[in-house]
């Protein structure tokens, strides 16, 4: 008889669906259900059980098959049942619950957590993991079972709306708040006590593995035909009416499943994981419950499978678990001590990798590692950031100076244009620091453990000539959920199997040690190295979306910088002063949470951003002395003159500015250098509305095509005034309901033209930029980044160049040619684009660079009213810009305005002997010693020498260099600025390499 392999594959799918899987959990009893509905904010579990014990919970009868829940509400179900006489019969008993699952959206809608009557949690349920352990085969129950077999359980069910459904990115208002209404009700379909028949589970997995191996095997190979024949014989042997046939059917597959892996197969280290977004398509309060559900699932799987190990990041999530569910936390701690539950990463949350200030990234680590050490007893070795939208080139230095040895992400695999050339490599930061980095080649942090993923990972792995080790993160993620029993059963089949990589469960530190050693030994001088930032060629709109969040971030970081400095000054001058450490810790932890990679980037629902409208940062490296606002100057007042056609001329002896009647600038002339900054044929300060209708990922994207669909907005000059010698021109620009009021200011003797914009924004699917063309021809622009600078292309010669069409700007960008440069600084903007301006003499157009700041967007998903309302922006164009001048101007623009601040002698200052050294942050030491911590870095990308000076209160103090966590265990291969070791603080000599960061500890 001819063998038809494709026919066997189709036959297999149907048999599994109809004749195998339904027998895994045969029902032996249906549970009775009662409900208690909470349509608003959820009741904490301990409060619920306290009220239950007092008789204050009024359960109502509930009929299975009925609708339940309101949008973002919670329903507590009381589940009662009876174990039939004679059970268990050699098989464990499990609950199977169906709350009305959508199997295509694990973690994105309804979930639940099952409790005992004493309030301790057993396990969670979600669409793809809906079993709950009840009684083992020997009769040991998870709950109290009465003599008559009766029992009671409680199910806390979260009625979360499905926001990212099929099709995705559909505009919805359901992400705004708990409505108290059943907008999209679910149906509680079934609640059964079942037998768990492991024979059918194992057979189902065997069939899936064999059929998947066939799909990816060479159809001309003996292996393909051997698999097909074994599959045929197995399906022939199986008869669902005869349970004993399962073992015969499995035996028919045993031979092909015992064939060992190819000698050159990849070695894959698998680790269980659940990526839990601290907020995204759900509010923070729901994340707290997701953490408990996910950890309970992981612990239940550890009970079921002794080989299972699980890795979890984010100190904030552990802290929530410790506070909300001490019973789960205690069980988790036991597994941590066994080495099976593995805390990784050591950051407070998995933060955005591009937008936070360098100090914020350090504090993510400082607060995170402190929690990990004090509460979990571990010190992670690696940075764990699988899902952030790009990674600053400062990360390798920050990580190494925090004591990390490795770095993990996979997000760069999402690039929409170019493919990253490595999966295992040394990532070299802008300063030259290197850290071993791995991108799991399955290109996911949420693998299902399928043959397809292993096959893809092996083919995709870019460094096969030098290494054969890779990491696989498995478990449902984003909304949590975690690994399942089915996933582990698949992995057990892959331990040594022909046709797939060799898989073993291995904790991340062990994998990274082996992978780094193997790559170093095999590569030698050919070690793969990537220098600079990891730019994500996707999600570029996250630099702009939810602008209030971003402005708040910048402001709060700035205020924290100032407050910590003033607190240190107060502590040094007054022994009775009580430093507000607890309050500052609370503020920092709130800020760090809100720098999570779906909050600060603006890609979460309205609820999240409403809760996180925070005031944030300032990174002023220019001066540590309070400056008076509008301080008198000896410079002459700015000249204002009205010209023909409604134009206005401003001049201060340094710059002359011609403002057209429509409020745009036709000339910005540097009189000292005879340089026109506005190319002929362009207008500086023109607002442009771009059509913004991404194909997918609305709030995340600004697509290339949008840059081709810009329409200029029309404005007019409303007034010309002078104040304190400065000239101010007020311009009104409008488009339907959107109104922009811009104040253009030229100050006496200034090299800067300042802009302040008040915007009342009422657009849908539009993107607002302001054009700032500069008469400078350059191939690249230089951008501010954490602890240094990064250069990105203006001229787009290659696909990689073109993919960087929208850039992270941070506080400033500098555009320069061989002899002259200009800068654009800003107070809250993070996105921009830069492109060449082609000159045309015949048409009177000059060449130059078009630089545009990205101000506002208006996506309709996930928040349909993104940024609608009032906003304010500040930016300046700086003529004759050096790095020093740009840093100083950015520092002043971003500095907070405080009232009644005395003139304080700087606690410490840096005297640059040569080069550019910035004193970035001063604070008291975290250990409460009263020592002063000073953070400084080289800012221009060259060598620098400097001297440290301290205030009289620190006379006689000593200084030594530490890691960024203020400890003395700085890695020996990292350069130090304080090269002579501990010495007197006053006059201490410092040497910095390019973009080198130093943390100095001054002890009295």
TrEMBL record:
GO molecular function per UniProt: hydrolase activity, acting on glycosyl bonds; metal ion binding
Entry annotated with the keyword Flavoprotein: no
Claim: Ribonucleoprotein is one of the keywords in the record: no
Gene3D superfamilies attached to this UniProt entry: Glycoside hydrolase 38, N terminal domain, Glycoside hydrolase family 38, central domain, Golgi alpha-mannosidase II, domain 4
Stretches assigned to the Glycoside hydrolase family 38 central domain: 537-616
Keywords from the named record: Glycosidase, Hydrolase, Metal-binding
Family note: Belongs to the glycosyl hydrolase 38 family.
PANTHER family the record matches: ALPHA-MANNOSIDASE 2C1
Name recorded for this polypeptide: Mannosylglycerate hydrolase
Species for this entry: Bifidobacterium breve
